[in-house]
């Protein structure tokens, strides 16, 4: 119930205005978001890389409403990738892109615009010597996102895709994307989805995650295990071992600000540990999804609201 309400609020302009104007929000947002400016992102990235972690940077934004804004987002990624190249961080840092931020939802030729903008970002990443992963949004975008990914992979075979374990279709998608060289991030899924397309309870989602992970670990691709769940992390390690995988043939991924000690433990044990690092002014949707995932974060937020009256 609470999760559903928060996920619905993540798409409400009215709630957005209230939350964004509330001063304590910003202190809590800082835990999950590097800052609003490019320099903030580069500094946070540098700090993470210095502690043996890798990074994937997300220029925050989603549901872009016009072509100009979509092109502006692509340009922001180009500037980011130039900065990563110039600071020598590109070896340890890639970027994550939401296709809705580069035009996917625009009427008429949204998919074409998103493809062109994503291509610009991939070219800038290739020039910087790093990679791109396409984030996955709600289930209405899955076919479109995977079809854009297939098209881009013809020129950029290192392009990463995200599959969400809660979707009933994902085990089959894993079979397709477990091919040689294919970078696949497996996450549980962060959106409010109907029962017809997605498993609902934690136990069912966890079981689906393990089934999907089995397919990816047994395949020839490069699985990216995106979860903070201690059980999933343990099972991923076991599956990698059973499939004779070396430590450089898969990686763990976690979000910035969540379980940082575990991130360091995994990195220090010789694993590749990548942190998803968001930055930018458009933090609202991302922040609300993080609150929806963990009641403790919400309690902290509400307590701050009550204290401020
Ligand atoms: C690198 C990365 C990229 C992602 N990309 C996408 C994407 O493209 N599309 C998409 O739909 N989703 C994405 N997600 C989000 C993902 O789908 C889940 O919503 C999120 O990771 C929570 O699921 P979990 O696997 O951590 O397990 P959960 O079952 O939610 O949590 C397990 C445990 O992890 C800890 N934990 C989890 N969340 C939090 C939190 N917010 N604060 C503090 N502790 C927490 C707690 O200890 C909790 O008990 C991504 C997640 C990661 C890590």
UniProtKB/TrEMBL annotation:
The keyword Flavoprotein applies. Pathway: Amino-acid degradation; L-proline degradation into L-glutamate; L-glutamate from L-proline: step 1/2. It comes from the Bacteria. Gene3D superfamilies: 3.20.20.220. InterPro entries: FAD-linked_oxidoreductase-like, PRODH_bac_arc, Proline_DH_dom, Proline_oxidase. It catalyses: L-proline + a quinone = (S)-1-pyrroline-5-carboxylate + a quinol + H(+). Its EC number is 1.5.5.2. Residues 45-300 form the Proline dehydrogenase domain. This is proline dehydrogenase. It comes from Kitasatospora nipponensis.
């Amino acid at each position: 119930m609470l999760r559903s309400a928060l996920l619905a609020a993540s798409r409400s302009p009215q709630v957005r205005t209230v939350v964004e104007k509330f001063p304590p929000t910003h202190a809590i947002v800082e835990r999950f978001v590097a800052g609003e400016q490019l320099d903030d992102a580069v500094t946070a990235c540098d700090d993470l890389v210095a502690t043996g972690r890798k990074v994937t940077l997300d220029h925050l934004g989603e549901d872009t409403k016009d072509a100009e804004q979509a092109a502006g987002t692509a340009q922001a990624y180009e500037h980011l990738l130039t900065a990563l190249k110039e600071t020598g961080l590109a070896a340890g840092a890639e970027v994550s892109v939401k296709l809705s931020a580069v035009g996917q939802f625009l009427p008429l030729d949204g998919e074409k615009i998103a493809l062109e903008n994503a291509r610009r970002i991939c070219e800038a990443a290739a020039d910087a010597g790093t990679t791109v992963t396409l984030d996955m949004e709600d289930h209405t975008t899955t076919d479109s996102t995977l079809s854009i990914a297939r098209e881009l992979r013809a020129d950029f075979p290192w392009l990463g895709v995200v599959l969400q374990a809660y979707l009933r279709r994902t085990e089959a998608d894993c079979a397709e994307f477990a091919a040689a060289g294919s970078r696949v991030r497996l996450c549980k899924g962060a959106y409010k989805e109907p029962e017809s397309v997605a498993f609902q309870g934690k136990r069912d989602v966890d079981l689906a995650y393990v089934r999907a992970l089995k397919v990816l670990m047994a395949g020839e691709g490069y699985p990216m295990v995106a979860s903070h769940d201690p059980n999933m992390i343990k099972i991923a390690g076991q599956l990698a071992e059973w499939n004779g995988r070396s430590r450089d043939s898969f990686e763990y991924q976690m979000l910035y600000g969540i379980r940082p000690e575990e991130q360091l433990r995994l990195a220090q044990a010789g694993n590749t540990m990548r942190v998803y690092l968001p930055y930018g002014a458009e933090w609202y949707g991302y922040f609300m999804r993080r609150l929806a995932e963990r009641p403790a974060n919400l309690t902290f937020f509400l307590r701050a609201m009550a204290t401020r009256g």
